[in-house]
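A.,

Following up on our hallway conversation. Structure tokens first:
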């Protein structure tokens, strides 16, 4: 379900293609989903944003 929730800020901010993506998870079982999983995504720097 996170793909539907994460789409809202993505479409609002239009971050572009990520510069780095990393995915980690607990042990994967052939019969069930993993116990936990996480994705780390680094968006590119936006030159048109003031910080």
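Then the amino acids I'd put at each of the 51 positions:
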């Amino acid at each position: 379900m996170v793909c539907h929730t994460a789409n809202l800020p993505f479409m609002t901010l239009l971050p572009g293609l990520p510069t780095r993506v990393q995915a980690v998870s607990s042990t994967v079982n052939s019969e069930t989903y993993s116990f936990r999983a996480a994705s780390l995504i680094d968006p590119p720097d936006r030159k048109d944003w003031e910080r």
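The chain has a mean pLDDT of 78. Curious whether your intuition agrees with the design.

B.
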